[in-house]
């Protein structure tokens, strides 16, 4: 590889992106860390309280519930998006005519705002007035269930709707990966008597293994920071049954005006995301070595 004659040129090009990254990511993270050592409501003086906010964090029942909910939300939404993204990409690669129309149709939920998606699902899942789900349950002789008002079901529904909204992104990533697989290898396998199912299990999926881990990193990181669907649909309710770390953070900092304690939750979220992504990358590097 040729080295640029002027070493300043690469820095010149990367400086705007680096500046944006520093001011929109690094500075707010450091700011949150500083705030987490204070008791501050945004108006009165900042009182230094040391690690008090952190001690309070691990005694806070709502926070513990939100962390557990977040992990369940992450598991359901990640599995759903990974499976659906893969399934939709597989369908697209198998259809030769008109797959452009399908690609657009599958991708539409990603570009519709969360508010619009949530409003659609509120109408679909509503019992009073009767929505589509309630009508179907009645038609099958079952008693309609208000799933968003049921503490046992709210988190599951929120996780699946979040997965539905974003799975189109992972469909595009997997679809691009499948297109990059060498067609000659596939054709040679078919000549040797390989079935359609075997071509995926033994050739295509192993060849896009690296993409799997990229998608996993994006999914784990994205779902741990999940906020909008839960906040709009249930506002963390009923009770705290669908409260996520990000929704609890928002309520603490901006509804209860506890900026210090809210910043402590934000620091926890950053550490949690870094740990989770670190674990995924560690597993990925181990798998690659093997």
Description:
There is one protein chain. This protein has 290 residues and is mainly α. It has helices spanning 8-35, 52-57, 61-94, 99-111, 114-125, 132-139, 154-180, 183-191, 196-207, 209-224, 228-233, 245-255, 259-289; strands spanning 38-39, 47-48. Strands 1-2 form a two-stranded antiparallel ribbon. Helix 1 (8-35) crosses helix 13 (259-289) and helix 8 (183-191) runs antiparallel to helix 9. The radius of gyration is 23 Å and the shape is globular.
Give the number of helices: 13
- Assign a percent range to the helix content: over 70%
Radius of gyration, CA atoms, in whole angstroms:
23 Å
Which structural class is indicated by helix and strand composition? mainly alpha
Note the overall shape: globular
Q: Enumerate the spans where pLDDT stays under 50 for 5 or more consecutive residues.
A: none
Output the strand order for the largest sheet.
1-2
Mean pLDDT across all residues, rounded? 93
Listing every helix as H and every strand as E from the N terminus to the C terminus, the arrangement reads HEEHHHHHHHHHHHH
Number of strands: 2
Describe the biggest sheet? Answer: 2 strands, antiparallel
Give the N-to-C terminal Cα separation: 29 Å
What percentage of the residues does DSSP assign to strands (E)? under 5%
